[in-house]
Amino acid sequence: MNQIKRILVAFLALLTALELCGCSAFGAPATTEELLVRYVANDDVDNFCAQVQVDLSVNALGVRTTIPVTADVRAANNVAHGTIRVDLSSLDTRDYEMELYAELLDDALHCYLGTTDGKTTTWKLWTVDTTSKIDITTVVDLLSASEITIIAKDSDPQVSYELTVPTAKVLETTFDVTAGTAEVAGMDERGMIEAVGKDKVRVGFTQDCLVRSLDTGALLSLRSAETNNVEVRMGIDVSATLGDYGKIDPAEVAIPNDVRDAAVPTDAPIDVLEVIGADSPLAGAVGS
User: Which of 42, 145, 202, 282 has the highest local Cβ count within 10 Å?
Assistant: First the structure.
């Protein structure tokens, strides 16, 4: 992210210097470029808290249910700490909880994922390489697909501007700036980009051009060896609210040494069967 931010700052600052942003720095941002110039210029852009809500609607093996997933995250100085909870009450099984630490270091995102069984916590270390293909062309391509709207939301008066980006373009850019090949239930990167169709990601910004909210959704239909060739229809609705910029103490989110020492490197950070439980009515749709 540091590398992405440096490129973004340099590129957008150049546009500003050339007066391509279209309006005074004291007025409302008129373009995507100007909005993001102000966003990256904020000193507290990497110090915040976030509440995330994900609703997974699943239809498979005659089971139709909605699984709420919530996350509370605090971040400071390129380190984040939070808890992810999966509400499995609709499947008549225990809820699932995971503790998360994430650190952006040496052009890689290091994620420490902890699950507790009884009194024992097991930690995994999942590393995502972020050094690939980060260039001006990637940034320009993403910005060209974005649209800015000046709005007033009754549901959240802190949102003053909304940036809309096609979900397919967000996925494409994400795959470009991370190394390796992504695959979900047998669906490769191209398949995932095509599956989201015309869905969009909507990002709300405050009057000070800090991210306040995020909303997106997608519908996927999966059938592969990983789903035991069972068709799984899944709807994903994501919403997030961010705030408390500049108020997070870095010491409170720092990764403890015992977590670093205990974490075992993995390429498979989440075992779906472990999350939903072997006795779940959806377990038959999950490959071993």
Answer: 282
